[in-house]
Amino acid sequence: MDQDHGDGAPVDEATEPSSGAPSADLPLLGKTVLLVHPAWHSCGSHQVFVSQARTYRSLGAKVLSLAVADAPGATLGSRQHRSYLAASADLEADARFFAGMPLRQVLNADFLRAARQWLHGNFAAILVETTKLVQIPDALASSPRIDLIHCNHFFCMPAARRLRDKHGCSVLLDTHDLQARQYALRNEAGWTLAPVASFEEMLAIELDAMRAADLLLHLNDEEAAAFQKLLPGKRHALLYPAVPAVSAESGGRDFIIIASANYANFLGVAWFLREVLPLAPDIPVKILGNIDGAFKFRAPDLLKRHAKLFRGRVKDLDAAYRSAAAILLPTTQGHGISIKTIEAMSSGAPLIATPHAFRGFGLDPAEFANVALASDAAGFAAALRRAAASLDAPPADRRRADTRSAYDRRFSFEAYRKALAGLVAPFFES
Fold first, then answer.
1. How many domains does the chain contain in total?
2. Where do the record's region annotations for Disordered lie (predicted)?
3. 73 lies in a domain?
4. How far apart are CA 215 and CA 236, in angstroms?
5. In this structure, is residue 6 part of a structural domain?
6. For every residue of 385-403, which 3-state class applies, written as one string?
7. In a domain, 165, yes or no
8. Across residues 216-243, what is the average pLDDT?
9. Coil, helix or strand at residue 166
10. At what angle do helices 221-230 and 199-210 cross, to 10 degrees?
11. For residue 375, what pLDDT band results from cuts at 50, 70 and 90?
12. Lesser CB count within 10 Å: N end or C end of the chain?
């Protein structure tokens, strides 16, 4: 099937409904679903978008993807657009589109007002106003039919609402955590003008954007409970994300940390380097992912001191997990479910983790035989030394590991497909 990879050109196959009647295996045959999501890649959220596209297609639907840039000037054909497409080929849709805010719109009065708020750390305000000003590609705006919009992140709702108004369809919103918490955490160490935006004022913007959705989907237990209290008049559902499984073959001799360049990951890896590693200095650790970019900005001295540990973005994730003797999850802060923890669980490898790495899972990691939990640096280092001392022990069958079994039950594609199909069915029946 031909695909549009973001140039905005019409794709007839993607916008014309499929022929044929729905079946039990393909209940959405003949329907078109639009995924609206930030133009992000190489992160946990992107893996959720990938799984959504795969799931809807497996249910028989045509899938359109609209990637929304979150920075002014990141428009069709821009460097950001090209970079996004190059790094997101795993998101398989019948047609892919890209939308961004033209640079000239920075003079818009509402955007200037939000920019002033952003100087005080109000990320919610600037993201919503940016999305209000994105240019929806003509080929998507003129699509003859969209039956359902599945939006991701509250600040993408302005784009979803514009397309909902044209097509008269329902909108589902995947909240991806209570974002005002993340912004408040970011402001603790970030540069802002005083007075710093409060959690409450950012939360108010977030909740206002969410009210337009017909169903709110939440990725973890804590998030679901919080939003049910904050928006009691809305419909809510707990939907654990599907995360692609990695290889569960017997591992090698590497101790690895995999982390993308977000602030919570930076805090965890910085804690590991400053407090854990000095207690286990002879154990070689590999830090994989684009987290080095966060250290270049936030802790260049720490990056320089441990430069040989940072290996950059992973091209072959399965190979990285296959070579791992153990996976380290030094999570100290952050909100929302940890996609990298789910990914690590699927490998069946031994995990050395803080309890916070399993937040919102509805599981007790202390019950998993292949997980060593440590709540402080000394305990984490001790677990790392024990794992290093047992490198020559006969390897366990990772396909039968406790974490792999829990992954299959809760976070596998099959579990997600069944749950999502049940949640969207009423919208198509009506």
1. 2
2. 1-22
3. yes
4. 6
5. no
6. HHHHHCCCCCCCCHHHCHH
7. yes
8. 94
9. helix
10. 80
11. very high
12. C
Place of tokens 């936030």: 298
Contact yes or no for 70/159 (Cβ under 8 A): no
**Secondary structure (3-state) at 374:** coil
Q: How many CA atoms lie within 13 A of 271 on its CB side?
A: 20
Alpha-carbon gap, residue 349 to 368, rounded angstroms: 11
Contact of 390 with 358, CB cutoff 8 Å: no
Q: State how far the alpha carbon of 115 is from the alpha carbons of 99, 192, 193, 238, in Å.
A: 20, 12, 12, 34
Burial 190-204 (b: 16+ CB within 10 A, else e): eeeeeeebeeeebbe
Q: Could you tell me the two tokens for 346?
A: 């699927």
Cβ partners under 8 Å of residue 139, min gap 6: 4, 8, 9, 10, 11, 15, 95, 97
* 107: DSSP letter: G
**DSSP per residue, 338-351:** -HHHHHHHHHT--E
Per the structure, the complete domain to which residue 134 belongs is given by 12-241+413-429
The residue written with tokens 């079994």 in the block is: 405
For 69: left if phi > 0, alpha if psi spans -120 to 50, otherwise beta; the answer is beta
Based on the fold, state whether residues 144 and 234 are members of the same structural domain.
Answer: yes
Rg value, the chain, Cα = 22
User: Locate tokens 């946990």: which residue?
Assistant: 44
Q: What is the CATH number of the domain that holds 361?
A: 3.40.50.2000
> Same domain, yes or no, for 235 and 262?
no
Query: Could you tell me the pTM of the whole model?
Result: 0.80
My answer on whether 95 and 110 are in the same domain is yes
